[in-house]
Amino acid sequence: MSSGVIQCVVLGATGYAGSELLALLHKNPHFSVVKAFGSAEREAIRWRELAPQLAAHSSLMIEPWDMAQLDHVSVQAAFLALPHAASADIAPALLARGIQVFDLSGAFRFHNACDFAQAYGFEHPAPTLLAQAQYMLMPWYSAQAEHSVYAIPGCYPTASLLALKPLVDAGFIQGTPVITAISGVSGAGRGANPATSFCEVSMKAYGVLQHRHQPEISQQLGCDVVFTPVLGPYARGILAVCTVTLTEQGAVTNLQAHFQAQYAEHVLVQVVPAPPAVNHVAHTPFAHLHVAQKESTAVITVAIDNLVMGAAGQAMQAANQVFGLNAYAGLLP
Ligand SMILES: NC(=O)C1=CN([C@@H]2O[C@H](COP(=O)(O)OP(=O)(O)OC[C@H]3O[C@@H](n4cnc5c(N)ncnc54)[C@H](OP(=O)(O)O)[C@@H]3O)[C@@H](O)[C@H]2O)C=CC1
Ligand SMILES: CC(=O)N[C@@H](CCC(=O)OP(=O)(O)O)C(=O)O
């Protein structure tokens, strides 16, 4: 258990995930944001000008990133909501200052450098840190060992793993699970991009059989998966539809009861009686999970908010638990 308020900094605070995290940190009495940064190229800007819906009563300034700004402040935790390459570059210097790093990007989600390079298309600048990083899929987190770099899972992997891990771990699946997941456009970040502009967005699969979240999901499950992401014409939320073939034992098991038992202690994951909608969870830290089964087939549907459960919310819970605090501080009233 930590005593006192945790002094923290947020990098990438002008982005969607970073701004969402600032809002959670401001609701969390155990954390104090001592600095928030955009990229080095950006002018300082007041957070409430950028995100009035989150920051109406805050006077926090978001400053251009400059490591030297940390020289004269005491910082225990840094949250990185940065592009993957920027996180991989900046994290080692923060760790060298004795700061615990919670990384929302994909920079530390793979255990080894070859898998990382294959998924992300560049060599990791600090490969030795990969083996030391802890993957923070929260229902499976237990504070067994000390770490200093914490990898927050991707948004699609969070939804997919909540659906599949309880079945794979129990040996209830045979063959290859098939995941089709539709994401709102905020999943692509705030930066301008023709493919995510208002007039272009329709309903379209992308990264088919080559998205970097396929190996992330596979690594965590210990089995192959087919993963197809789809960009949908809405702002917030992911709906992951996961279709599996059950083993004989899986087919005779009440899977709803199995999921309820799995998540009984995890109030953010709610097993619901009808297939969920992204609007049921948008702007909330919850995942809604539904399972339907017929003979040897099961379809598990999970809805999350990509920016909360899929990014900032899971980072908030991770930091709470690493520092021995109430797991849901900042997340639940
Ligand atoms: N969006 C989502 O649903 C999810 C995102 N993530 C991950 O979280 C991270 C952030 O995503 P998101 O918020 O969507 O992205 P955005 O594009 O919205 O924000 C990126 C942020 O990083 C800053 N930045 C960019 N380059 C640098 C750099 N070299 N040094 C310092 N700061 C930099 C930007 O500053 P500036 O504004 O000044 O350019 C901005 O604050 C990504 O790694 C993403 O993959 C994870 C799960 C879900
Ligand atoms: C809709 C959309 O573009 N989604 C992003 C994934 C969301 C995300 O940011 O996940 P990571 O943290 O793993 O990067 C994508 O497919 O790249």
Plain-language structure description:
This protein is of the alpha/beta class and 333 residues long. 30% of the residues lie in helices and 24% in strands. The strands form two sheets. The protein has an eight-stranded mixed β-sheet with strand order 3-4-2-1-5-6-8-7, sandwiched between helices. The protein has two domains: 6-153 and 310-322, Rossmann fold (3-Layer(aba) Sandwich), CATH 3.40.50; 155-306, Dihydrodipicolinate Reductase, domain 2. Bound molecules: NADPH dihydro-nicotinamide-adenine-dinucleotide phosphate and N-acetyl-L-glutamyl 5-phosphate. The site of N-acetyl-L-glutamyl 5-phosphate has 10 residues, from strand 11.
Task: Examine the coordinates and then state which fold CATH places here, giving the name of the CATH topology of the largest domain.
Answer: Rossmann fold
Mean model confidence by pLDDT: 96
Continuous helix count: 12
CATH first level of the largest domain: which class?
Alpha Beta
Gross CATH architecture of the largest domain = 3-Layer(aba) Sandwich
Q: Which percent range fits the helix content? A: 25-40%
What small molecules does this complex bind?
NADPH dihydro-nicotinamide-adenine-dinucleotide phosphate, N-acetyl-L-glutamyl 5-phosphate
Report the sheet with the most strands, covering strand number, pairing sense and barrel closure: 8 strands, mixed
User: How many β-strands, per DSSP?
Assistant: 15
Beta-strand content: 15-25%
Summed up, the domain count is 2
Which blocks of ≥5 consecutive residues have pLDDT under 50? none
Protein structure class? alpha/beta
First-residue to last-residue Cα separation:
21 Å
